[in-house]
Amino acid sequence: MEDNVVLTMRGITMTFPGVKALDKVDFTLRKGEIHALMGENGAGKSTLIKCLTGVNDFEAGEIHVAGIEGPIRNRNTLDAQKKGISTVYQEINLCPNLSVAENLFIGREPRTKLGTINRREMVVRARKLMEDLKLPVDVTTNLEEYSLALQQMIAIARAVDMDCKVLILDEPTSSLDDSEVEKLFTLMRELRAKGVGIVFVTHFLEQVYAVCDRITVLRNGTLVGEYPIAELPRVKLIAAMMGKDFDDLAAIKPEGGVHIGTEDLIDAKGLSHAGKIKPFDLELKRGEVIGLTGLLGSGRSELARAIYGADKAQTGTLKVKGQEVRIKHPIDAMNLGMGMLPDDRKAEGIIGDLSVRENIILAMQAKRGILKLIPMKEQEEIADKFIKLLQIKTASRETPIKQLSGGNQQKVIIGRWLATDPDFLILDEPTRGIDIGTKTEIQKLVIQLAQQGKGLIFISSEIEEMLRTCNRMAVLRDGEKVGELSGDITQEQVMKTIAGGDKK
Amino acid sequence: MSFLKKLTQKQLFLPIFSMILVMLINMIYDISKGYAFYNFFTISINNGILYGRLIDILNRGSEAAILAIGMTLVVSASAGTDISVGSVMALSGGVCCVLLAGPGNVNVSEFAMPMWIGILAGILVAGLCGAFNGFLVAGLKIQPMVATLILFSAGRAIGLLLCNSMIIYVNNDAFKVFGGYCWIFPTPVLIAAACILITALVLKFTALGTYVQAVGINKDAARISGYKSSAIIFLCFVICGLFAGIAGIVATSRIYSADTNNIGVNLEMDAILAVALGGNSLGGGKFRLSGSIIGAYTIQAITTTLYALGVSSSQAPVFKAIIVILIVAVQSPAVKAYFARRSAAKQAALSAGKGVQA
Description:
The complex is a heterodimer of chains A (504) and B (358).
Chain A: E1 5-16, E2 19-30, E3 34-38, H1 45-53, E4 60-65, H2 77-82, E5 85-88, H3 100-104, H4 119-132, H5 148-161, E6 166-170, H6 178-193, E7 197-201, H7 205-211, E8 214-219, E9 222-228, H8 234-242, E10 264-273, E11 277-285, E12 289-293, H9 300-308, E13 315-320, E14 323-325, H10 330-335, E15 338-341, H11 345-349, H12 356-368, H13 376-389, H14 406-418, E16 424-428, H15 436-451, E17 455-459, H16 463-469, E18 472-477, E19 480-486, H17 491-499
Parallel strand pairs in A: 3-7, 3-8, 5-6, 6-7, 12-17, 12-18, 15-16, 16-17
Antiparallel strand pairs in A: 1-2, 1-4, 8-9, 10-11, 10-13, 13-14, 18-19
Helix pairs in contact in A: 5-6, 8-17, 12-13, 12-14
Chain B: H1 2-9, H2 13-32, E1 44-46, E2 49-51, H3 53-60, H4 62-78, H5 85-101, E3 107-108, H6 115-139, H7 144-162, E4 168-170, H8 173-176, E5 181-182, E6 185-186, H9 187-205, H10 208-217, H11 219-224, H12 229-254, E7 257-258, H13 267-277, H14 289-308, H15 316-331, H16 333-357
Parallel strand pairs in B: 3-4
Antiparallel strand pairs in B: 1-2, 4-7, 5-6
């Protein structure tokens, strides 16, 4: 191992049932560096960290820590701590009703000769530690008296005092405000100067550029690369996270020939849902397909959900076909001619134990009401129609939907909405986890629906797919709609807007 | 083999199987006592009414069967149970008798007001209790078990309070009919049959079944598809309360008195058990009403059989518990998985053996 390296992970591989969570991932941490671990949700960041701290057991690969002979394999977090690997999470795992000093020394209290706790020494040592790290804290005060940020820093101090060589900060800034974040950064730089290697996991791009020396990017459980911060500007980072090799991208023009109507189907002004999506405006005409793009968690699903009433909008006004409406519940939206295919098929899409037929007529039945049961014969006809139209592969229409493959389940849910003949349809990740053939079919279907005069919102993680189907794109970042693109959209434009080219 | 496997996977297999098992035990017992093997099924007319052990089971099982209807819906929609139904039965009977006897009277033979008003009031109060439970569960999102625990303990107490802690007798033949006989038939059997029939028709001709099951299987997906899950869960609790009211009137009429301390005691457990015995998951979701009904009568058959075998009424619950443990264990995922593994291993061994032979 090189002199200045404190941690190396080589070829880490780990499988969850059916999914390869990590595939031969390498990671190197040097002494006195702050190293950002980046990737979209599900890229494998937390899994990699859990492999390191012993929460997960990896199948192949080696971990080496400076000062320890041979590869290590931690059984649990305590084991990891003993080897100098500490983790501080977003939630603070300390006791608010104990003093700062007590919290710092929980489980390793200095003892007197009689074996009782030596409080005096504990306080002295705690004070020294706080002074070293320049934290303005009275160690005899209860922890709960201090702000979240300070509590977090005390948690870090505790980790550092336990002779830690590798400090992992997992989304530590999520619940902090800007000035608190700055204080945390000061502490991180202090620790860097002391030679601690810090792994910083965050989804805030600005923070990465503010404090980090190096970036390692993961995507779909594989290593994309390790870069010094200067060599990876924002746009390239986004490209790396999303899996687009920026230089090779050929611009794909959206399909022409779609007739866009004049009638405003949807006209949202200032809709918002606290903590999920900041106020936004959105207009949609008949025959139009709007793509919502942004990183996962940027608020693209939340925007659509606020319109549909899946998360009731808390502010703003919504006009549907020129009429101002109030949507309290999805059924209200459905009665106005809307439909929504949610991104989480399992949690919000399928009714697993019910048959394909029952799943297809589900939304239609809801629109008719509880008293007007759709006659069985009609149900069967509708089910057969969509099984044929969407080429759903199922043993029979009475097969429980949970026995179908993911792609076919998705088609059933699409059928459910087509059966209600909506004017406005939201498709949230309709092609996720679906084979290429079906993907293309769904894209074609989107264009067909637009040609029939329906309005669509299309959300996808794959930009090419959206460029192919959408007339217009709205870009979201950190819960805010930050821009709209129309005309000849290029992938480069989209990614620049996502990355926030205006800021850097 | 595959036929047997298919058969055992049918949802109604378990309840029907348990029922047949109980009947077999009865037949063996009868034969050992020197009676004809069909003794259990014999139905005769004595003193102008139907008579026989089967009739007795149908009659005594009526309340549990009526409760099981509502319980099935509650379990399916909310993935929880309503443990207040027994207590609500007592309250419903209490309200009915207090109204019919008039204030302050404890033993009357003349009604203080038209009989139908008393009965309707009793059932409506039970419906209100259901609405209260439904509000707690669907509105305030309290766990069903905890929410219904309130009326489980309070319902009976309110009944006692109404009756001034006394047993109120309504010694009138018109009132006795509901727990007695209608021509040659035991009236409770007819009432239970009517309740079952009405519910079955409602399930067949409205979308109630789809609504309840969709909400019960996946509340979030149902919501996105336009179902108001809170309203559905609330409705199920109200229906459950109304049926508890009807069962309460039947139980009260049997003894033509509001014995609030004893009416419906432990019947909620029979109703829940009936649902489980019927092959319905207590985790909610898909349900079969017929299963629950058969389950309810199976429980009564077990009880009646135990009595016939000479087990005293104080010991009967022990045997009932053993049977219940067996049935529930057979249904449990762990046991199912065990048998699935075993049959898979057998199959593997079998095909391996064949391979060697070939």
